[in-house]
Structures are given as C-alpha cells and as structure tokens.
Amino acid sequence: xxxxxxxxxxxxxxxxxxxxxxxxxxxxxxxxxxxxxxxxxxxxxxxxxxxxxxxxxxxxxxxxxxxxxxxxxxxxxxxxxxxxxxxxxxxxxxxxxxxxxxxxxxxxxxxxxxxxxxxxxxxxxxxxxxxxxxxxxxxxxxxxxxxxxxxxxxxxxxxxxxxxxxxxxxxxxxxxxxxxxxxxxxxxxxxxxxxxxxxxxxxxxxxxxxxxxxxxxxxxxxxxxxxxxxxxxxxxxxxxxxxxxxxxxxxxxxxxxxxxxxxxxxxxxxxxxxxxxxxxxxxxxxxxx
Length: 289
Description:
This protein is mainly beta and 289 residues long. The protein is 1% helix and 50% strand. It has 2 domains: 3-148, Immunoglobulin-like (Sandwich); 157-288, Sandwich (Immunoglobulin-like), CATH 2.60.40.770. The model has no long low-confidence stretch (mean pLDDT 94).
C-alpha cells in the first residue's frame, strides 16, 4: 500500500528528516537520496515522504527537478499522484512514500546543481507555497545540493537522442550536431525549451555566446535571445577538445505571440557579441492557438 501508518508524525529510518509546511495542507517529513553526485547519463533517485495535515481538496502532483542556482531546468520527473495515491485520498494519519528517478541527460555540463521537489495543481500549474521549514530563496520547493560530475567518456550521438540532427562546423572551435526541442509546438504563455548539442573541435580560447531566434514565414523575427551556453554556467573556454556539451535555452512565449509557422535558427557570437557564423536553420515549429 502506498499509504503508510504512522502515529507520531515521523518516519523511522529516513535519511534526511525535514518538517516543511506546504500551503498549510501537506507536510514534507523528509527524503532519501541514494547519491548526491552522478555523471550525465545516470540518475538521481529521490524518495520524498509526505503527510496531509488535513483532508486535501485538490489532487496535487509532485515534481522532482534538477535545476541550477537560478532555477533553470535541466531534467525532471513528475508524479501525477504522489506515491501512487491521489492527494484527495490521503488521510491525515498516514504518510506517503513518493519516489522519483531524475535522469541527467548526456552532455549536461558538470558542476553544482540543486535537486528540488514540491507539489503543484496540474490543472493550473500553481505550486503550493512553502510556509515554514523551507530553504532560503526557494519559495515553493525544497532544494537539495547535488553535483553532476564529468563523464568517464563522451556520449555517442544515439545517446544524445537528437531530434533535429545537423552536422555544421561553425569555425575551428565548435561543431553543431543538432538540436532537440522540448515539444514540437509553440505554446503561448509558456516556455519553449531547446537543447543544442555541440562538440569542441579543439580547446576554445574564446567564450562564445549563442543566439537563437524564431523566424516567421515572412522572415520576420518573432523572438530572439542570446547568451552564453547553458545560461552561462559552462563557458566555452572550459570545454576540452572532443567534449560534447548539451546547451539548454529557454524562450518565454507571451500570451499574444502570433499564430504561425516558425523556423528556429542558431548563430554563434564572439566575445563582443558580433556574429561569428551565419544563421543556421534547426527545424520548424507551429504556434498552438
């Protein structure tokens, strides 16, 4: 049974006890985390222990996400019914054991991250706020420090699972293998997330930036943004020859974004923001009404 009987509000043998109040509705009693350091291609295995403070009227879902210190998303896994039981069926006398496996995508930059967990209403995407017992700077999740280490070997192209394959030498430093969008449509009032896949042909001596844009059928730019790869957490001068890097980008699509078909394009910029390549087509996407 996913619902475990408890009498004193504690869980015997839990790795990390916590007492976190989510919205005066549900408490996080603590968690187990098998490993706090993994290489790309392997997984963080998190088990959270939840307890209803009172009968819960909303069927909340649980999230577990790998994010950086600014909250940028790198991986995640949600459970529609935490512990396999709708929160509306949780009586206050029990606790639920909710397990997540968060796989770190191959090519994810090494470094320090956070593994977060929390609860949200899947009908509105509204998260339950943390009222007491939380972590400073994280208003609606707990944040567990974790590390992604350097891989023992570079990922193969099949392991990168590239949806829009390319093979483009941008210059003597960088080769682009392609891109993978999070979804195949553009949804208003939501993020459009995109992963680019690079290989360092040598040790770059320049910290390049990456420009990404959406171009409509009239060749008008709908959205454009530029910045260092993966939100600046892994500059290109840190890349080693032969290293393959997953480079995450996220567009916020406003509610009034025009309907239509768009091309996603990428361009390399030098250290002063000047073009270091032509624009390259990655793939096409359509806005959903």
